[in-house]
Amino acid sequence: MTKSAERTPPGSADLTQLLSQLDLTKLGALAGKVDLAGLLNAAANMDESQLKQLSKALGVGQTKERKPRELPAPDGDFFGLMDTLTDEQREVAGQVKAFMHAEVAPIMNEYWNRDEFPRQIIDALRPLDLLRKVWNEDGTRKADATVMEGLITLEACKVDVSTAVFFGVHAGLAFASVALGGSAEQKAEWLPKMLDLKAIGAFGLTEPEGGSQVSQGMRTTCRRDGDAWVLNGQKKWIGNSTFSDFTVIWARDEDSSEVRGFIVRAGTPGYAVEKIQGKIALRIVENGLITLTDCRVPDSDRLQEVKGWRTTADVLRLTRAGVAWQGVGCAMGAYELAVKYAQDRKQFGKRIGEFQLIQNHLVHMLGNVTSMFTLCLRLSYMADHGIMKDEHAALAKVFTAARCRETVAFARETFGGNGILLENGVAKHFADTEAIYSYEGTNEINTLVVGRAVTGLSAFV
Ligand SMILES: Cc1cc2nc3c(=O)[nH]c(=O)nc-3n(C[C@H](O)[C@H](O)[C@H](O)COP(=O)(O)OP(=O)(O)OC[C@H]3O[C@@H](n4cnc5c(N)ncnc54)[C@H](O)[C@@H]3O)c2cc1C
């Protein structure tokens, strides 16, 4: 028997079914490559199994659903710097990240619009016990305090810079003032409550007429009167002061011209706080304009170990690295939002992340974020090992604030018009950067600090 005689002649139904399922576009394309008539002739003589094989080869009946390509999750830690940290440091960073997403992200736009700090997050923050990751009970610092503070700040700022500012003012400026300037009794009274977030502090240094020059032109005065001091003057921009339990007030002694620090308790007669309204940055932080009118503070609330401006400067030195970290977190948060948006948003039938110019923005941002993160990690390491000088912190502040400004601008641009809507997140980062740029030493003043260090010549006027 010949081979063809052995074959089961194809049922015309099989061939008709095959032809009915052929994609005509594909068939047209095939016609240019193979002898289609010959193929159909051959098919007419095929048995059922051969027809099945041909169907498979032609992809008939296989509706190929293209699986959407999985895109990488946005990640601002491109060089894996988190991997260089200790388990505890990573764990604390993870806790802050989870807290920010669970407790702050859902309410932050509402509070931004209300120009108000959500005080309920203080209770939610308490179980994390973050201050004890930085400070010991006696007011000395943990061995890796500055790195830890940096990571807390980074993770907070990725979501909301204002939350980091609340924490930085209380756990940094106010806590350090008591820790460095307080007597043993004062530390025993305040530090445990501050560690537990049961007493919230504020830091009153800047004045309406004395910002950058406050060390030289402090107008708030103190005068000894029996067992008390009488304070007069104004302090401007004082974060947390609208609800804090006390504010550290820095004032110049009318007799000796020495700078002194005082713990001024909320409700003290002659101490009035007015909330500054209408800010375009850090609207969730409550900044106060404090007026002191013959405000009597007992000598027991004068910070007993303050050694003039030197102590104020020591407090600022301790916290300046934290402000540099705010720039890293703010920029990283904005970058990650921009990557996600570029992966999702479509224009001209493509994701905007497929456009070269958008990729250029993203890569520029990532370069900024990576260099800022690396710099701050090293800065904090230097601080924790006692080798950081003022000019190191100043350069970090100058560099990160400037790169943050550039990064959030690119991020906002990536969102197009949607970038100015609060609901998309990036607008808040964009606005908050303006405050980072100006506080804890403006970029000009920090530039002069670095300039003086590298040239040996002072350009301060
Ligand atoms: C949101 C926010 C929160 C803040 N929180 C606090 C707080 O909790 N406690 C507190 O005490 N303070 C706080 N501040 C104050 C902050 O530290 C000051 O704003 C900052 O020190 C700058 O002072 P200034 O705003 O008065 O600017 P100015 O000192 O008036 O400076 C105006 C401009 O002149 C430039 N300039 C000044 N002097 C020189 C010079 N010699 N050479 C070159 N350029 C110069 C500055 O760089 C700046 O560009 C806060 C500020 C803001 C905006």
TrEMBL record:
Q: Which organism is it from?
A: Deinococcus rubellus
Specify one Pfam family. Answer: Acyl-CoA_dh_1
Q: Keywords of this protein's UniProt record, alphabetized?
A: FAD, Flavoprotein, Oxidoreductase
Assigned protein family: Belongs to the acyl-CoA dehydrogenase family.
Gene3D superfamilies on file: Acyl-CoA dehydrogenase/oxidase, N-terminal domain (1.10.540.10), Butyryl-CoA Dehydrogenase, subunit A, domain 2 (2.40.110.10), Butyryl-CoA Dehydrogenase, subunit A, domain 3 (1.20.140.10)
Matching entries from InterPro entries are given as:
ACX4-like, Acyl-CoA_DH_CS, Acyl-CoA_Oxase/DH_mid-dom, Acyl-CoA_Oxase/DH_mid-dom_sf, AcylCo_DH-like_C, AcylCo_DH/oxidase_C, AcylCoA_DH/ox_N, AcylCoA_DH/ox_N_sf
Q: What are its cofactors?
A: FAD
According to UniProt, the name of this protein is: Acyl-CoA dehydrogenase family protein
The UniProt record lists the Acyl-CoA oxidase/dehydrogenase middle domain at: 202-295
Q: Where is the Acyl-CoA dehydrogenase/oxidase C-terminal domain?
A: 307-454
Q: Please spell out the taxonomic lineage of the organism that makes this protein.
A: Bacteria, Thermotogati, Deinococcota, Deinococci, Deinococcales
Domain Acyl-CoA dehydrogenase/oxidase N-terminal, residue spans: 86-196
**Could you name the domain of life of the organism this protein comes from?**
Bacteria
